[in-house]
Amino acid sequence: MAGKPGTFDRIDSVLARLPFVRGRQPEALPITLDRKRIYVLPTRQGLLVGALLTGMLLGALNYNNNPGLMLAFLLAAVVHNGVVMAHLRLSGLRITALHAEPVHAGEALRLRIRVASGRRSRDGLLVQAATGEPTKLPEGLHAPGADGELELSVPTTRRGLMDLGRLRISTTRPLGLARAWSWWRPRERVLVYPAVEKGGPPLPGSGGDGAPRPRAQRSGEDTHHLRDYRSGDAPRQIAWKASARLDRLMVREYESGTANDVHLEWSALRHLPHELRIARLARWVLDAERDGRRYRLALPGGVMGPARGAEHRHACLRALALLPEAGG
Amino acid sequence: MSAAVAVHAGTSANDTLPALTAPLRRLVVAAVLAAALPLLLQLPALVSGGIGAVALIAGWSALRRPLPMPLRLLLVVVITGAVLLGFGFRVGRDAGSALMLAMLVLKLSELRDFDDAKRVVAYALFSPFAAFLQDQGPLTLALGLVAAIGVLAAMARLAEAPAPPKPLRRDATALAQSLALALPLALVGFWLFPRLPTPLWGLPENAVARSGISEEMSPGDWIDLMGDDRPAFRVRFDGPTPAASTLYWRGPVLTRFDGRTWTRNEWLAGFPPPELPRGEAGVSYTLTLEPTDRRYVFALESPTGWPNGLELGFDATLKSTAPLRSLSQFRLRALAAAPYQADLPDALRRSVLSLPAEFNPRTVQLAREWRSAATDDRAYIERVLAWFNDEHAYSITAPPLGRHTADEFLFDTRVGYCEHFSSAFVILMRAAGIPSRVVTGYTGGVPNRVGGYWVVRQMDAHAWAEVWLPGEGWVRVDPTAAVAPERIFDTLESAAGDGGLANTLRPMLDFGDSLREAWNNFVVGYNAMRQSELLQHLGWHGAGAAQVGQAFVVAAGVALGLTLLVLMWPPKGERDPLLRAWRGFLRRWAKRGAVKLPDESASAFLRQLRASETRASDAADLVQRFIALRYAPPGEGVDAERTALAEALRRYRPR
Q1: CA-to-CA distance for B225 and B459, rounded, in angstroms?
Q2: Angle between the N-to-C axes of helices B377-391 and B361-373, in degrees from 0 to 180, rounded to the nearest 10
Q3: Largest alpha-carbon pair distance within chain B?
Q4: Residue B494 in contact with partner chain A when CB distance is under 8 A
Q5: DSSP label at residue B197
Q6: B612 touches B594 (CB < 8 A)
Q7: What residues of A are in contact with residue B118 (Cβ under 8 Å)?
Q8: Total CB pairs under 8 A between chain A and B
Q9: Does residue B526 fall inside a structural domain?
Q10: Is residue A196 part of a domain?
Q11: Which value does ipTM take for this structure?
């Protein structure tokens, strides 16, 4: 949509380095786009039209051709108003909040940005992260007074707290001759879980074939008791017959002696490179969670668990994500 | 193989730009063809036919499938050749615009992606402008406006391309709005943008000659002109209109005769202009000349006042310093014709006495006999005119003439029109030793009863003679008038029969022409001079280019301010009447101390009301109804309830 993004991006990155330009420093939300931070430059089509109009003006003056002059002025005024309208399409837009569910490094982060459209109609706006594809402002946010979220896909590369960099909001409406845009650098940072190792050895102490231990022990129903379903429980643990009988979801709880717990030790993986160590531990956390086993993660910073469930998983992955860099 | 290609095409379209869809292609082709049309109509038939054919081929290829490269190259070569051939290899402004037009329509055949579409659409804007350079008639202007609107519409659509197209009506409304908003600035630019008193660059000679009076004449070659009822110029007299028989609009004066054709004598151009009779009396009038591409200004004789930019020639003709390529307007003054230039320089005298040898022996013989028989020049002229009147007839269907044109016309065919009469008359004069010359121009005109001005058409073209009499100077003699005065002052149209149809249509035709005249007056003929006149009317005397520039800046600032005001005018607030009423209700409560914070829900406000205001039970009732109705799905009953609640909220005043 945005012409050849290459050209615009080059201009954009040059401008971004200028000292007086807004949007360089991280900013807290909410922000309102106003004339101090909206930039307008012609597109390539706009430059072509500008050259044509200049030629028309000179030609019409030279031949004292009034209809030609009228045409040139009419078009120039339309183009000028188009530039103003492009500016106004951004002006007054408010960005009120920012949120993203963590993803593993290498996956696309779905950044949710809350936008209030203010008094004007906002169709044709494009939102783009420093890396990533431009995304159209969803139609529900076009009308004046609309307030809602837009989802932006941002690629991630590294674990840890990610600086989102510059976010750009731009438009070339109404005529495609001028592009108005604004930058904003959120102060909020989003968590990116470590990448997960692909392949590699199974959970430690699981008998080598990766098969979860509880399965092997499920010979008698009496080895467990039932409890209420909690969010995060694996579907496989649900006791369907009992649930049907009691009319609410029940979950089997196995006799879980310490022998059943998985111990994930940072120190046990000393032979691996730093990042691979993190990636393997992250995968084991996911595996243990999938198998419904309790797990305990011992990291240089402390020990978590043994426990299981979404919260525990998040705490473990977060701790892994925030581990310092190798040698750092 | 084909599957692999298809997959490849799919992915590449995905990671670059969305594909140029068929509706968009149709829109681009339509916009470009609409833009090409006005210019196409102005080009010579051969050229516009060729370009039109190429446009159709290229348009078809844009919609169906791209032309192969060799075929495109071939088209480029062929059309370039055709254009150059059509203009006789004279590359000027017109050939240039024809070539640009050819390239524009050819560009359609390589419409691949969005960038191509955007480029070709922007480029198409030159075409209506180039058409305006050629012609400023209503048809061209209307087509040009349509073209510009079409191009803008295509631009808007391309700018929002990946979005599904909006209904046509919304597009049209948006476009109409932006044109309306553009008008103030456009009008200011038109009226006040400083005009150039002299062109920046030379105006190239037009490659295609326009019809009209040229700088030469040979008996029998004006037949096309005599049937052409297009206006040559329009005249508005300030005072009463002079008698029709004195309306001689002088054009080129022809002094050199080669036996067949009368031409101007360029050698004489260096002579100073003659002293013309001066005086304050006379007629003043405004002459609005259609473009001729020549420099003659057809002024009434004898001109006494003319604006800058015109100059008087040695033969008392008024000429513009630059060719008149567009409609031009002049304020002129004239004094009733009187003899002038009593002293004729020898070089001039020789040039207006010379006759080629071995042409028209019988005429020369007759002239000598009659002159020696006459007492003076005037008596001789009278005798010649009487002879014309008695023995010659006026007809525009005169038979063609051979080598001795005057001999054959005077003694054999004896039928002819103004060219024959004036040419033969001057030959008779010169053979008798009387300095004389042929003057071409127009006579008479037709009054437009609606507009109160006169139209002089191409069919009013005329040729007459001027003789130089010793002691007096140049005197006009119209030999055709001696034969058929009615044929000169009433023109061919009325001669064709005072048909009923022409008479019934006359008021309508007059009205149409008067519209055209008004347009010419106010728009097309507007120039640097009229601009400073306009400022004078506003009380700004002696305004030069700098002052006009200042006025432009001020007025453009005002127009711009107005436009911005309209553009930035806060859009209407809440559109939902219920919400509007609700907010008013909250504002009134806030004044009474019951404030609903922005992050508070309506139910929280309800609890607040119930806790603090014991008297507000009716208010609490309203809030409860609001909570119930705010997000209720629309339906007939609900809509009525919402309206009722909005009304109740508006009326409610906290006590």
Answers
A1: 6
A2: 130
A3: 133
A4: no
A5: S
A6: yes
A7: 3, 44-45, 176
A8: 168
A9: no
A10: no
A11: 0.74
